[in-house]
Structure formats: structure tokens, C-alpha cells
Amino acid sequence: MYLLFVTFVIAIVLLGVHNHECKDYNLSASDQSLIDMMKHYLHTSRRKECPAQNKTSNTGVTYVRWGKKNCPKGADTVYTGQAGGNQYSHKGGGVNYLCLPNDPENGQHQPYDNDQVYGGEYELSSTSKPSGWSGGMSSKEVPCAVCYRKQRSAILMIPGRKTCYKGWNSEYNGYLMSDHKVYSKRDYACVDKNAEPLDNKNGDENGALFYTLRTKCGSLRCPPYTNEADVLCVVCTKSNV
């Protein structure tokens, strides 16, 4: 209703100017200001009424795919690398895992003692490995890939599930892993169910360690959970459309 009124006012002003008896009539500053204001209002109002033109076409989300050297089908690979982080026995410093690129730009050597960036290794055994994994991956370094999924507005890692909830898209699923409970605290990471080693190098060099986790009933309600079970996980993204 207000828009119709504004349109009517502009029409009256323009009609009055056109039919004025003085052929050499010039608009006053206030007349021109009023016309400009009304034109601006109509322009912005019409623009608000028009649907957005691909405003979300270039948006997306990034995430790390732990345990794999590449990204899932449909996702762009930003870079591939090696999992790393602080050494498992250090009591201070960073606690999160890092996806370190395979083509670093190294800084200058420094003499001070504060080494916190180590490689990451799988810590597995015949009794402490995810179902289906080979015990031969123990002490092998962990690869990673940073992925970009276009036309997604949100990303979510869900612990305790291998499928996403309705309306969300699965990027990959796997096992929730972290450092051992007797060592320093570490972030949880969702490691791909089909995880692979970084290379075939053998050696127990430690660093940032990846241990399989188990559930513990009590404060964790069982059911719905099960005692001493692998903790599954899934990485989900939300579509823009």
C-alpha cells in the first residue's frame, strides 16, 4: 500500500512539472531531491522483491578427511598432507591434530626448545584396532586431506553414528580416535573407515598418536549405547538449496 502511495506521489510531481505553464521552468532543489529520493526507494524496493541471483553458488565448507590421501567424490582437494600435532607425552602446548601439507614452506631454524609439531601415527594392536583394520598399520604415519565441498552451508561431525540425519549429506564415515587416556589430552578426530598409511615406512617414532576409543557404560546410558564398543562417527554437510 505504501509503495502505491509513493508511486502516486512521484507521478503527480512529474506530471506537474511536465504541464507547468513556464516552458523554461527548472526544478527546484527540493523538487529534484524529492524525485531522487522516490526513485531510490522504488529501485531498492523492487530489488528486494527479486529473488537472489546465485548468491550461494560460490559458498561452501572445508573439512579434514583423516586417514585418507584424497577427498570424497564431488569434493575438491585443497591439499593433501600428513596428520601431526604435539608429542603425546607433552603436558603443555597445542592439543589439536593438524593436517600438515606435503609441500610446506619452511621457516628459519630456531635454537629454542619448544618443539610441538610432530608427525601422527596409528597406535593399534590385535586387541585395540577398529573392526576390519589390519594390525600392520600400527606405528604407520597417518595421512590426511583438506577438502572443499561447494554449495554447502554447514558442516558437522556426529560421534556415535555412521549415517547423517535427514537433510544432511554424508562426506565420509569412520571411527572416532584420539590419544590414549593416560597421555595428554587430544582432540577427537573422525578417521575414515577405510583408513590407509601415509607410506610403507616402518618405525615406532611416536608423536601425535591415534588410538581407537571404546565406550564405557555408567554415566553413558546403555542402552542406547553398548559397553566397550568402537565409537563410530560421520562427517556431514548441509546443502544450500
TrEMBL record:
Signal peptide: 1-19
Keyword Signal applies: yes
Keywords: Signal
InterPro entries per UniProt: Ca-dependent_lectin (IPR051077)
Cellular component, GO, one term: extracellular space
Protein name: Short-chain collagen C4-like
